[in-house]
Design a protein that fits this description.
- The protein is of the alpha+beta class.
- It has helices at 76-83, 114-124; strands spanning 8-11, 17-19, 64-68, 89-96, 103-111.
- It is built from two helices and five strands; from the N terminus they run E-E-E-H-E-E-H.
């Protein structure tokens, strides 16, 4: 078996060469020779991937409390009722065993507002229900 080799074609302007039979790919020329981000180029649908100030909050962006020592019988509505006293609860997740569905003793409660999450943390820290 022969090792992989590449035949080189004619050298480019900068002295390097390209493999034979491969097209030279160049970036599309921008108007006036200025850089244009991919999301703003012709053919792109407005803003591409990237950040936007007006996007709805992602669950990773939400202020989330980790709740430990949760009873195995606790349901999502129990935690939602407890924490909604402090502000608007966006999401409640209880860790459960995949086979049995029994709670593993922890949960995550996401709030829409950081101040509400901080208040809930202060008021419920060490709470036994």
């Amino acid at each position: 078996m022969r090792p992989w080799t590449s035949s080189l074609d004619t050298p480019l302007d900068d002295g390097t060469a390209t493999p034979k039979n491969e097209p030279i790919i160049s970036a599309p020329a921008a108007a006036g020779g200025k850089y244009v981000p991919p999301s703003m180029r012709a053919g792109g649908a407005g803003r591409g991937a990237g950040e936007s100030m007006n996007r709805p909050a992602n669950r990773d962006d939400m202020p989330t409390l980790r709740v430990t020592n949760v009873s195995m019988e606790t349901e999502e509505n129990d935690l939602r009722d407890l924490f909604s006293r402090f502000g608007r609860v966006h999401r409640v997740y209880i860790g459960r065993d995949r086979d049995t569905g029994i709670g593993k003793g922890y949960a995550f409660v996401s709030f829409e507002n950081k101040a509400d999450a901080e208040r809930a943390m202060q008021k419920t820290n060490g709470m036994v229900a």
